[in-house]
Amino acid sequence: MRTKKHISLLAGLLRCSLGLVMLLMGVEANAQLQNDNIVPKVNSPLSRFGLGDPVRQYFVASSGMAGLSAAWQDPYHLNMQNPAALGHLVSTAFEGALFAKNSNFTSPTAEDNTWGGNLEYLALGFPFRNQINQSLDRKSNDWNVGMSIALMPFTQVGYNLSLIDTISPGVEQSTNNLKGAGGTSRVRWGVGGRYRQFSFGAEIGFLFGEIINSRLVQFDSLPTSLSAEFLDDFSFRGTTWNFGAQYTYSFKKPNADGELVPTGKRIILGATFASEATEDATSTQFIRRYRGVQSDTLVLETINDEMILPSSFTVGLHYQELNKLNVGIEYGQTNWDNYSNPLKPDRLTNTSFLAIGGEFVPNYKSYNSYFQRIRYRAGVRLETDPRTLTSSATGEGGQAESRSVTLGFGFPLVMPRQQVSFVNTAVEFGQIGVDGLLEENFVRFTLGFTFNDNSWFFKRKFN
Description:
Layout (H helix, E strand, L loop, with lengths): L1 H18 L1 H5 L27 E2 L5 H4 L28 E15 L4 E17 L3 H7 L5 E26 L2 E25 L2 E21 L8 E28 L5 E15 L2 E15 L2 E16 L2 E10 L3 E10 L16 E10 L14 E16 L6 E19 L3 E16 L3 E16 L10
Antiparallel strand pairs: 1-4, 2-3, 2-17, 3-4, 4-5, 5-6, 6-7, 7-8, 7-9, 8-11, 9-10, 11-12, 12-13, 13-14, 14-15, 15-16, 16-17
């Protein structure tokens, strides 16, 4: 009966998650696709290119450690980047998070400060073997299998810009009002298994979204001239695949009987690979010219095509002392040169990142000091962005780069039946852009929760 209730709960959470899709995407349906009707949730100039600003795909606990994921495993937290880590879950975990971001944009001619935020993710994961059953039945802990499902944004688009072209200083020629809104989201389902020191996992994702880009051209110096609007409503859907593996080497020493037993210290190697994916794409293109309330539609057509998302990989190495210390380093690449979208052509560049971070728990068993049980996290992340900026005046520019420092805390909570859950926080201080052309200095706050429950698949015995 309890298993049926858990399955019903899982289905209910999935229905609730799907109901939040539009909130995550930040897209508002509007019957009249015109520049004035577009209300961006954020104002990020870089989101004009490609699929928009990428949204972090790791959860709050990992965010505090600069996003380490390839070799990271935790018995109470989900790792959605490497499905192999699901094999190390010992308790059901329901996770969710909210974020807020403050950005300060600077360019040679302008400066702007914006706030943004949203629901970041909802996820549920659970192991198929109950640790309590294994202990009571004295069964081997050589293997385990875990599964997860999550809903989270993938990219976000939002910008509202005005570009003025001039014939000579002080003489306006035209104003280009650029607006964009929308984004993409992904439903992710993963399975991971562990056998002794090896673990493997696979994940399939359903990627979908809608992005609206509009350019309104007005000739300010010629009041009698016609204005023009070019609008593209781009949507797509398809599947993505992600694979992962981890290897754990545990240090051992002889006990009083001369048997080798684990010391709690270990080294973890991890790797992930996301395959190239082909998505179904649709573009509704709308071009009109107008003066006042008079409008003339020149183009209104829908085009179907395919979009190709690039492959990527990450590799990581962790040193861990159980319930005490966890430090790691990670490197990854994404082949954005292979990105293709005939309906919204953009030239993107291959990217890479390097992340270093860790977690420290002074004394997880402390009864006298709560601060001794808090998980303290920190990290540094260096990353290149697939988008390239070039100055129209000088022709100078380059590939955008990102640098950030992260801090995080994991606050343990003792729930009913002595089950431990967590409130996790993370803050990221960073900069992204091209020096001297467009720079964004940002602070990103994330607040998440992890509710753990070890009663799933618990086999009860009656005398």
